[in-house]
Amino acid sequence: MRVIEIIHTIAKMQSYADQSRGKGNIIVFVPTMGYLHAGHLSLMQEGLKHGDDLVVSIFINPTQFGPGEDLDAYPRDLERDIELVRKEGTKALFTPEAKEIYGSHYQTYVALDKLPDHLCGISRPIHFRGVATVVAKLFNIVKPHIAVFGQKDYQQLIVIRQMVKDLNFDINIIGAPIVREPDGIAMSSRNSYLTPRQRICALSLYESLLNARRLVESGEKDAVKIIAAASDLIKSHPETTIDYIAVCDSETLDEVQIIEQPVLMALAVKVGTTRLIDNMILKP
Fold first, then answer.
1. What is the mean pLDDT of the chain?
2. Is the pLDDT reported for residue 1 higher than 70?
3. In the chain, N or C terminus with fewer CB closer than 10 Å?
């Protein structure tokens, strides 16, 4: 059985990182909120291609959840997660409590000016401030050379890349492809909330993206028409409520009206009470 060091405190995690770096290791970091699935494991597998000391964190970050969101209900299974990361060759697992990360009278946050004002940031106004803050803190605690994030959370990925650039973190950010379940649904811890009937409805997200890709590849350039087609398809399924469907620049997230180069199509839909996201690059 592979040995894995389970670390709960900032001091011990920083000490581990200092020792690993002192040995000349390349630390690769995969931050997660736990309840791991094959998508998370693919990030670890990608990370091991680029370094030799894989560190994973499991921390459900309270500052990225707004009022009425699913912080308390977010799925948890730490014992199962430990076995999964052990099998992937993880050398250290960092599992702090919220009071360890934020302490008392916490006051300092990282906030980006523009990227959070699109897509998920519109309906979740504090989300990316929480994401940027906790990732910056984790970078200072884990001290990685490389960090791996999934492209399913596309906006999160480019927010982190921008933060790393702006704040001069000496860390290489790698984006790993979306991993899908056999029926096409993007893997997410929140998929566990879906009833069997809702899961069928949730397939409409991926189906709408595939249909959009077909439209663009056949010559359609009008983003409004592509969004309308996706909206009609999703609304044809019961228990679906669209948060947003957007066609936008893949770097700035600004809306695109006429598709003349590769663009990002991103969407967020509630299926029942479960909010799901998905995206795809559309190439004319």
1. 97
2. no
3. N
Amino acid identity of 29? F
pTM of the model: 0.96
Q: CATH number, domain at 235?
A: 3.30.1300.10
Structure tokens belonging to residue 236: 């044809």
CATH number (domain holding residue 62): 3.40.50.620
In whole angstroms, give the CA distance from residue 253 to residue 268: 15
Exposed, middle or buried by CB within 10 Å (0-12, 13-18, 19+), for 144? Answer: buried
* Domain extent at residue 193: 189-282
Q: Which residue in 70, 43, 46 sits closest to 58, CA to CA?
A: 43
The per-residue pLDDT for range 115-160, each reduced to its tens digit, is 999 999 999 999 999 999 999 999 999 999 999 999 999 999 999 9
Whether the Cβ atoms of residue 235 and residue 242 lie closer than 8 Å to each other? yes
User: Among all residues, which ones are annotated catalytic?
Assistant: 40
| Total of domains in the chain | 2
Burial class (CB within 10 angstroms; exposed 0-12, middle 13-18, buried 19+) of 213: middle
